[in-house]
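Thread: quick sanity check before group meeting

JM: Hey all, I'm pulling together slides for Thursday and realized we never actually wrote out the predicted structure for the chain we discussed last week. Dropping the sequence here so it's in one place. If anyone has concerns about the input, flag it before I start.
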Amino acid sequence: MQRFFRTLRDRKHDPPRRRYAVGGAALTLLLLFSAIAYGAAFPDGTTTPLVRVSGVVLDDRSGSAVPSATVSLQPAGFVTVTAADGTFAFRLVPEGRYEIVVRSVGYEPPPPTGVQVSSDHPVQVEIRMTPTVYDLGSVSVEDVRRPLSSARPLVIDKEAIRTSRAGSLTDVLQRVDGLYVQEAGGAGPVEIRMRGSSSKQVLVLIDGQRLNASGTGVADLSGIPLELVERIEVHTGGASAEFGPDALAGAINIVTRPEAYERDRLVNLYSSIGAYHALEGGVDLNNPILLNGVSNRFNYSHREADGDFEYAYAVGGSAGEPVTYEGVRQNNEVRTENYFGSGMAQLARPLSLSYSVHHHRTRRGLPGSVSRPDTTGRARDDRLIGTAALTYAAMPLHQHELSFGFTQFDQSFRNLDPAISPAYHYDSRFLNDQVSIKQSSQAQIWRGNQVRGLLEYRRDRLFHDDYLRSRFAMGLSIRRSRGAALMVSQRFDVARGIPVDRVALDAAMRYDYAQTEADYVTLLDRGESHVSESWSPRIGAAISYGRRYHYTLRAGYGKSLRLPSINALFWRGDARSTGNPDLRPEHAEHSDISLEIAGDLLGAEVDAHVTYFHSNVTDMVVWMVNFQDQWQPMNLGRARITGHEESLAVSALGKRIRLEWHNAVTDAVNKVPDHATYNKRLVFYPRYLSRLSVEGRLGVVSARYSIRWADKTYTNDANTKYYGAYRVDDLALGVEFSLGAHWTAGGTARIDNLRDRDYVLLANYPMPGRTIGADIRLTFTPGSGRTSAQAELAADNRAH
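JM (edit): ok, ran it. Output follows.
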């Protein structure tokens, strides 16, 4: 053979005919050797006759093709894979008896199929495979290149929400460090406070669109069903450098709009019952209409409850024994409806369009405060929130997005009961429209660098009418805001030899200009326009070390602000109250430092962190009595807020058992130079908030027990009255199992305030005692043939 190939090499310069002759001889020899080898594979050594063996592999349940399945012909040892339509073929098979063996991921191996190959006719077979789910057990994923940033926003994804067994968005948020969730007695509004701040100083967004009403500056989260939420981003501490004005204490972005193209089809039905005749139900539809390059989702939900409950709570004070209030909360019913749609269209490979539309309707009673109950007042709240984003992402680190947002709040409050004094009648309406346009771009200039620029325009239009006392209506007010921001971050890999492997530096600067105008002149004739200009800087640094065991040290400093609400500026009021167009924005100078440690300890995953924060707030808006004996907002407030937060999470036995402990201590102190209030604690915020929870999973069953502690809260600036400390225990039991290839069922039973304790979150709005509730869910995945576990595994793969 060596001589033969050497001859071929030596003759490469021969004339063409001779080269063709030599090539033909070589090809003939190769075919001969192949035929001999082919025949040697069989016991009888024969090579003829040769027969075609073909077939198709199908899913036994759906009848669809099974592509990329491995098919082998034994004992010949021939191997092939099925095509996209499930077909396969062995073209040259000698006569004899064979077995066809098929294997495919996600399917039970079927018994071998026996075939008799003869020269009479080709062999064709049909093989069906039964889908199966593999139990992979515990899988440990090590994030070797985890993101590093000086900020530490908490991200709660949909899977974490599902496994938390939370019954509402309120349940999820009250488990976050630094957040204090305040409810107005079960069926009432829900407000959020951060690190000693007021609810007006926390910016809440849905898909980047503001939820804070322009009139009051407060966001009510009670109208957002948990089923709509894809992800929650919590930014504790000042966040104006990224989100603009009104994020003085922080920001919460609730994401409902899809961020990736999704083809899975799903139908999810859910229903729940609870205390005080509470009923809730809804339906989720994922991709009910299959369109090429378009994914869509629709949701409808309805909730109602009579809301009336018995209460008893005490108000302590320095003057004597605590005073106990008890009675029945009446006129506390609520009925809500939500219509939701979202989707994404892949217009071209780098260009996509995503959208979300949410229509919320609430009809509720207005029970009033305990000190002044209202048994006939009614409120109507209609909201329409729409967002759209056009994203161009040619490369992962180079992206441009143009987003639009529209929000409309239509709220009415009315009580014309002839049985009460006309002095307590009211009939008013607030119509608030918000339109925003935002353009953002991000790019990587060099390795480890990222630059992001942002331009934003927003218009707030507020119309207020008082149908009983038209001279006190604010009429039309318009606020136009413009903002521009630049954010730069740089990552470094550090050489070995020191206990630091990566460093991150971040800097951001944002400029905002806002002009607010009213269509009337105030009673004191001080003008009808309010202008504000502000700069919001932030700088930060972070270092980390380790992979399997690692620590991260973060530090940041910045300034944030909050614009005065339109009500505070232009409230026309009466002889008892009036607005103040001369108000200045509230400002905060804030800093924080945190340490995180994570790793494996004796087979358990341990994650611990501690944060220290500090904030000086100036120009706080405080309602005080002016020289005309009217209540009027003024910039007289100063506060110093310091504190620390600690948490420890331990997961063991393959995450079947999880223990979490969270603690937050906040010293929010009034610094107004007044002998009665100086160095007194700010009202309605407890000094400490602690939470301990234990969660266990065994097969399809899960259980969660949590305990919340809160310190006493003062109810007046002089700290002479207070609500006592309280402890609340909650228990949740869940089950989830498969009902075949397409159906999944589950349910949760909850007991809130298990020990039936009395407590208050908002002044004069007591919380109910022990409440019991349960929900059931039924999920159908048509056509996909995937169980819930497979869908979750696919989602995890997409996420990573």
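AS: nice. DSSP finds seven helices and 42 strands in the chain. The helical segments are 2-10, 16-40, 158-163, 169-173, 240-243, 566-570, 788-799.
JM: adding both to the slides.
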